[in-house]
Amino acid sequence: MDYYMRLTTFHAQFRAIGTNYNQVTKALKATFTEKKALAFLYKLEKETRELVNLQHKIIALTEEFKAKFF
């Protein structure tokens, strides 16, 4: 039960990152030159890939959890 509660909390935080992501991209476009904004977007994209990899690991762990305990 604790696993699912923490997973739900994490998922809510993950969704909040998506909202912030949209706000950051708009701010970059409005604030910086194209070259500087692209540099920041590259860094943001790299971090986003890490989040995607983390999400894949979470899915795999959840499937393993289900197989063991249900």
Distance between the termini: 12 Å
How much is the average pLDDT? 89
Please give the number of β-strands.
Answer: 0
Shape: elongated
Task: Name the helix and strand elements from N-terminus to C-terminus, one letter apiece.
Answer: HH
Radius of gyration: 16 Å
The portion of residues forming beta strands comes to under 5%
Please tally the helical runs, counting DSSP H or I stretches of 4 or more residues. 2
- List the uncertain runs: none
Furnish the topology, listing elements before pairings.
Elements: H1 2-31, H2 34-69
Would you give an account of this structure?
By secondary structure, the protein is an all-alpha fold. Helices cover 94% and strands 0% of the residues. It has two helices and no strands. The radius of gyration is 16 Å and the shape is elongated. The N and C termini lie close together (12 Å). The model has no long low-confidence stretch (mean pLDDT 89).
